Structure formats: C-alpha cells, structure tokens
TrEMBL record:
PANTHER family: ADAPTIN, ALPHA/GAMMA/EPSILON. Residues 705-820 form the GAE domain. The keyword Ligase does not apply. Its main location: cytoplasm. InterPro entries: Adaptor_Complx_Large_Subunit, AP1_complex_gsu, ARM-like, ARM-type_fold, Clathrin/coatomer_adapt-like_N, Clathrin_a/b/g-adaptin_app_Ig, Clathrin_app_Ig-like_sf, GAE_dom. This is AP-1 complex subunit gamma. Subunit of clathrin-associated adaptor protein complex 1 that plays a role in protein sorting in the late-Golgi/trans-Golgi network (TGN) and/or endosomes. The AP complexes mediate both the recruitment of clathrin to membranes and the recognition of sorting signals within the cytosolic tails of transmembrane cargo molecules. Belongs to the adaptor complexes large subunit family. GO terms for cellular component: AP-1 adaptor complex; clathrin-coated pit; perinuclear region of cytoplasm.
Amino acid sequence: MRKERMPAPIRLRELIRTIRTARTQAEEREMIQKECAAIRSSFREEDNTYRCRNVAKLLYMHMLGYPAHFGQLECLKLIASQKFTDKRIGYLGAMLLLDERQDVHLLMTNCIKNDLNHSTQYVQGLALCTLGCMGSSEMCRDLAGEVEKLLKTSNSYLRKKAALCAVHVIRKVPELMEMFLPATKNLLNEKNHGVLHTSVVLLTEMCERSPDMLAHFRKLVPQLVRILKNLIMSGYSPEHDVSGISDPFLQVRILRLLRILGRNDDDSSEAMNDILAQVATNTETSKNVGNAILYETVLTIMDIKSESGLRVLAINILGRFLLNNDKNIRYVALTSLLKTVQTDHNAVQRHRSTIVDCLKDLDVSIKRRAMELSFALVNGNNVRGMMKELLYFLDSCEPEFKADCASGIFLAAEKYAPSKRWHIDTIMRVLTTAGSYVRDDAVPNLIQLITNSVEMHAYTVQRLYKAILGDYSQQPLVQVASWCIGEYGDLLVSGQCEEEEPIQVTEDEVLDILESVLISNMSASVTRGYALTAIMKLSTRFTCTVNRIKKVVSIYGSSIDVELQQRAVEYNALFKKYDHMRPALLERMPVMEKATTNGPTEIVQTNGETEPAVLETKPPPTGLQPTSQANDLLDLLGGNDITPVIPTAPTSKPASAGGELLDLLGDLNITGSPVSAPAPAPQISQPPFLLDGLSSQPLFNDIAAGIPSITAYSKNGLKIDFTFERSNTNPSVTVITIQASNSTELDMTDFVFQAAVPKTFQLQLLSPSSSVIPAFNSGTITQVIKVLNPQKQQLRMRIKLTYNHKGSAMQDLAEVNNFPPQSWQ
C-alpha cells in the first residue's frame, strides 16, 4: 500500500495571524496544542520538505512560553543540511532551545567544526554566533583552534564574529586565553569599526581576567588614545554617525578599556589625561548619546590616577547632569557624586545647592539619592544651612524617608553641632516632626545630651513642656519630655529660664500634663512608665502637691498593665516604709558618660574636615580573678610564646575557670612547668592599651570592607564567623568582630568565648553583646577582638568555647589558621 502523504502545514505567517485572533488564553492554548500535534506528526514522518517551516513555528511558540523541547533533534538535522535556509533556522533553534545542561548539544560539535571551515562566510558566521552564544566548556576546548584561525583572517565580517566568540571561549575556559594573544596584535590596526569594537571587547575581557594580560596590554594605551582622538576629531561619517557623534558605541568601549588599563598605574594614567580632557570638553551634551560618552569619561577619570584639575572637570560634568531634564541622568549623577564625595569633597561641595534642590524632585529614587548625598556633604562649616534644608525635607517627605532622614540628622547634629542649644533644638524639631519614625536609641541619646548640658536644663524643660501641650502623638517626644519634667520640674515651676522668656507654670499644671499622658489612648506602655516615674520624682521637687502625687501613684497599684502596676507598688512602698530614703533615691541624675556601641572605638567620618576622635577606655580590673584567668589562657598556644588577653570589662566567670582550662589542656605539649591549679596571681601592671596613640585620627579604613570574612568554627550547630577591619592610622591593628549563631532548636546559654595569640601579638577581648545564642539562627552574639601585629606576621589564634546546651555543659577548643592575608599583611 502506498503511504498517504500529510497535507502541507500552514506557514509561520498564517500561524501568527491565527494565534492573534484568539480572544482568551484557553483558546490560544487550544490552537497551540493542535499545531504542536501536527508538528509532532510531521517530525515522525521524517518530512524533510517542511522541517524548516515546522521548526520556525516551534520557535515562535517557544517565544510565547510554550514547551518546544521536542524540536531539539530536528534543529540538529537542519544544521546538518546543506541548504543555507535550513542551517539558519537550525542554528537559531539551537541557540534558543539548547544549552550546555542538555547532552544533545554535544552532537553539534562536529557540525559546527565543519561549518567553521565552510567556504561560505555566512555559514561560518552562523557557526561562530552559535558557539559564542551557547557553547559549553567542552565545545570551546574542541573548537578554540578554529576560532583562533578565523580571528587572523582578512575577512572583517568573520573577524568581528570570531572576536566575540573568543570572548565566550575565554569566559568558559580561561586557561585558553594565551591562545588568542598572538591574534590580538593586529586587531587594533583594523579600519573596520565592527572589528575594532569587538576587539576592544576581547581585550577588556582578557584584562579583567588576568593581571598578566593587563600588564601586557598597557603598552596599547597610546594606540587606543590615537583611535579615540580620531573618532572625536573626524568629520561627519554617515555610516557611523549617531545624533552627530561618530560611533559612540566604540568610544564608550574604548573609555571602559582605558579605565581598566589606567587603574593603579601612573604612566598609563598620564598618557590618557589629555584625551580624556578633550572628550570631556568637545562632546556635545544636547543629546543622550553625548551624555553616555561623558558619563563613561567621568567614570574613567575617577578610577585612574588622574590630575586634580581633571577630577574637578569630571565633577562639574556631573553637576551639569543634575540640571538635566532626564530623570535617569540626574539619578546617575547623584549616584556617581555619592561615590566620589569622600575623595573629592570640596569639588562636590560646589554643587551643594543643586543637590539640595533635588530633594524637591517628585521621583522617589532621585529624592533618596539626594538625601544620602546631602548628609555626606554636611560638615562644621555648613551644618546650620544643611540642617535647615534637611529639616524642611523631613517635614514634607513621604513616610518611608522619615526614619532614614531622622537618623541622618541625629548623626550629623551629634558630629557637627555648633552649640549645645542648637543641638537640642534640632533634635527636638526632629522629634516634633517625625517622632514616631526615629530609632529606638534616639530617646536615651537625647536624655543623655540634655543631662550633660547642665546650663541648658531650664531652657530644655520649658521647650519640651510647651511641645507636648495637648499633643501626645509623637511618643519619643513625650517620653523625653516626661523624663525632663520629672528631673527638672522645679526649674520649670521656678521660671529660671534665661535663654528665652520664662513661662508661668504651677505645680498642678505640670501634674495635669503628666496625668493626661497616663490616661491618653495614644500613650504606649513605655510612655506611661516614663510619666509615672516623672510624677514620682516630682514628689521630691514639688512641695505643695505631694498628697496628690501619692493618690496618683496608689491608683496605678491596681493597673492591668503589669509594668505600671509594679512601678506603682514599689513607689507606694517608698512613700510608706522608706520615706526617709525617698529624697536620696529620687535625687537628680548625675552627668552620664557616653558608652560606645562597639567597644572603645568609633568610626569617624569628617566630611572634609579634620576632627579628633576622642576614645575613652575603661581600665581593666586588677583583682585576682581576671588576672589569673588571663594568665591561665597563656598555655593555649604553648609555653612562653604567648601574650595575655587584656580584659576590658569585669567578667562573671568564677575564679576556677582558669584551672579548668589548664586541666583541659593537660594532654597538650606545653613548654614550661605544668600547673595543676591556678595559684593566686600577683597584681600585674596593666599592659599599654593596644590602640593608644590612635585617638586623634579616624580609626577604620573603609577599604577594609574588602577583607573577606571567614568561618572560624562550625560544629554541633554552633557557628563562629570572623569579620575584619583595619586601622586607618596604624596598619598594625586588626579589629576582628566575631558573630556566633546557633542553628539548633534550643538556645545556647552561658556562652563564653576565649582566645589567645602568640607573644609577638597583643590581643584585647571586649565584652560580648550577650551570653545567650538564640536557636534557629534567629539572632547572633557579637564580640570584638583587637589584635596588634607590629611585625606583620601571619596571624594564628587558639580559641576556647564554653556554653550550656540541652541541659549539659559543653566546651571545645579550636585553632584558627585560615586568616586572610589582607587581615595581617
């Protein structure tokens, strides 16, 4: 019987028209399924006549998101065909339907190799495009030789495709990079812009991947400069002109390559300074094409070792970008200025007014970048004007900006406040405007500032009293006001304010305000606690209203709020049983010392000004237990080659801890005589603090962010990570922050971390943030270690960990030897 032939399938154009007539997704899906069934049947029939048409339709369905994997082998059959039209659809299908995750792609290797040696350049071009798009590392190894041959050919059509294919080969198999080195010698002599463009892309890839290639290609800087000069000085060329600029794509690529070649190299940077100045001054800025070139020029100037005048020119270009109507250009300018503000602060300051104007932009992205840059520009000279603008911005900005803006104002005011009164007024303005959005530490910080400003107490309590009259919506403001009224209520009633006209307030009016806070629906539990404590304090400041205060306190002894109830019961006890002690217990708070958040060091940014960073450290206790504990730790690394730990705060560990540590180390080879129990150690003089002499400079270098972190310990669900910072003025000091996390289902309690280093180092272990590591990685303990390494020797450390877990005491020793070289070199 003769086999009946299937009818001719519909054309691709007809399929597209049919699918577009579908009114619903279900209708479209039905059409696609019907056509896919017909295509499958055709593939089973081995119909060579319409295979090309069917694969083309399949690719269209793939673009619409429907599965088309069953056409992969048909693509290979088309590639093996001798017809160019078949090969074109086959290679297109291979690029879309195949990748290196499917083994079937390896079947193409021989076809591609044959086509790379084909007599027709267009077939060779198809093979190069496919290899450069989806070639796996195995294919690249097998076919790199053919690509390298085509890179040397005189045919510019093939050379540009071969250069891009070589980029893909290098990305997949970096060790083949040297194979292409001889072929790159004459690439930049090509007149064809397409070849030039792809050649620059290839050189860029090689320089980024290999320091040796980077050094080798630095000699090409004069040639690249000459090409770029010809581009900007040449007249109108219709085949390369884009909006009046000659081949901007090639210019941008050359500028990127120059940026890589000139980075950290004085000679190369010197050779390109003049051409960068010419590009910056001669490029037309009325069209977006010119702005793209100028932006690349700015990035190159900022990244190489350019002259100061050239850097100012680059920042002025960014300043002009800020005046552009295009929002994208304004955003790019703000982002770039934010990156350069620390190195070229004064040049960026000249554009301060334009930057501040961007705070009024309607685009939220531009507004956020402008806010960040404005804070970076604040210094002691402009703090009043900048704070005025930022406070105005805080008044009118969207809620999502208020928290970051308030935090930034607090930090800037703390660093650059011209006077304490200005500082207090600024923070009170923030609390009045955005009190509900400030960080949790804003209230204690402001209380501390007010306490330490003794001469401003009367002024501050009067301002706060007026600020909360009838408005309790800003809870942080009400908390600070309640605290100050309780502390300095006598100054408020006496009217002793000299800074502004005093107001006449009676004791009853003050108590009315605090009672209103207590009963207000807007008051949080914490705020009510502040108000009740303030009322209690006033019992020793006021004379006529003590009985009223007793009544208020007794009422809250039965409050449903447990915190308020406890306070009220205790205060009632003060009135009844311990009244003779009440004046002493409720006397005015002394001046508070500011505790640093992360040990005795703080990161200080001066924004263009030189300001000393004052560091205060508490001397270690000289009692028996800390001394013996530090000395017991001497044996961790063996014998006399150890330096003691310098404790910075008293520890709660019992005195026997050192003896237990020695027992634990009894099986180690420790030079020196063994010790069975910790003997009473004599009083030792405190070693000099290892950060002495650094107090007049910013401590940490932002570049240290590049030091990789390490995992020092990971066992039984406990993981200890080390992150590193380096001193800005003394490179011998390394600050290590440990982070301990717990992946088990139960908390780890009574956690103690101990460390010791060889004697050539000095080590200081600060107090941990907690002694409990929460379960399920829901929190971490942080602790800071400072290591002085004057001889720049490789860092090594022995650590001991003790903690309680699942009802049993755990302890373990570990040695850390994998410190990254950047942390100690």
